[in-house]
Design a protein that fits this description.
It is a single chain. With 164 residues, this protein is of the alpha+beta class. The chain is built from 6 helices and 5 strands, in the order H-H-H-H-E-E-E-E-H-E-H. The strands form 2 sheets. It has a 3-stranded mixed β-sheet, with no helix packed on it. A two-stranded antiparallel sheet has the order 1-2. It starts with 14 loop residues before the first helix and ends in a 5-residue tail after the last helix.
């Protein structure tokens, strides 16, 4: 029996560092860093909670300047997601959204009160995945782990005597 890898402490993605890392990855990968893509990145970096593609598109039209086309927004989202720079978050009520992430094997804690999402690395599911693959003859290619609960801020606010 193997010892599960200890999770890396949860952390929020720093917006400025995230934007710089994405821009660098785009340059290295040969993807042009265009003004419309930069506007999409800047808008995404301002979000502190999960956002939808439609919300992003609408917000780009409100912040002044020339709005990128819908196709550019959706292609940029898909590129960021497939490269690991965005993660899809599935809410408890079935809604889905995106949050900034980092490439690699990352899971998320999702606050059901305020929507805060905190990423963490490390996975104790490897042994379970291997056992399931052997038992079912299923070629498991990946998994998604999102844990739902209330963050420390929301728990403190809720425990306050004046909270509803």
């Amino acid at each position: 029996m193997t010892t599960p890898e200890a999770p890396t402490p949860p952390a929020r993605v720093n917006p400025e560092a995230w934007m710089q890392a994405v821009r660098g990855a785009w340059r290295v990968g040969g993807l042009r860093v265009t003004e419309p893509r930069l506007r999409v990145l800047q808008t995404i970096a301002r979000y502190g909670a999960p956002f939808s593609a439609e919300q992003l598109y609408d917000d780009l039209s409100r912040d002044g300047g020339e709005r990128p086309g819908r196709a550019t927004v959706y292609r940029t989202l898909e590129h960021l997601h497939s490269a690991g720079w965005l993660a899809r978050i599935h809410g408890g009520a079935g809604e889905a959204g995106y949050v900034t992430s980092l490439p690699g094997h990352v899971h998320h804690l999702v606050c059901t009160s305020c929507g805060t999402v905190i990423a963490f690395a490390g996975c104790a599911l490897d042994e379970l995945v291997a056992r399931l693959a052997a038992q079912t003859d299923f070629a498991i290619e990946g998994h998604l782990l999102q844990l739902y609960g209330r963050c420390a801020t929301c728990r403190k606010a809720r425990s306050h005597p004046c909270a509803d």
